[in-house]
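This entry is set out below.
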Amino acid sequence: MDRRPVPHGAEPRLIFSGLAGFYDQAIGLSWPLIRIAVGLNLVIHGWGKIGRTAGPAQLLDKLPEAAQIGMQLTFLLMVTEFIGGACLALGLLTRVFAAMAAIEMAVLTFYIYWGNGFGWLSRGYEYTLMWGLVLFAVALRGGGPWSLDRWLRREI
């Protein structure tokens, strides 16, 4: 067995070399798949907030100051999750919305769920930490080749 170190950047040899053609074709789909999964997940969570909050702008004037702040935060989360999730799935303003959602997940992880421990079944931070790290990776990478950002030739 050859134990020489693999040169930096070299790909490992495939055990089943017949898969090389498939991997060469499919590799371009990996990033859109991640981005779409994250985006659609956020859309579903955002839609749940929209369903529970009727007309946040009209309610703000009638609520006490503390409740107004809560409604404004709810509205910001709805935008981040529903609109941001849709934009992430499409690859539009990808870095902006991924960063916003990653910050949301960081707040949820460290301020809401941290004290409950790791496990999601005990209302821990496992789920929000994982999604926050994935969103951070999306923010770093951007929309990728199959995105509206790329099609528009503009990215932040």
Observations:
- Residues 31-143 form one domain.
- DSSP finds six helices and no strands in the chain.
- The CA atoms of residues 20 and 44 lie 36 Å apart.
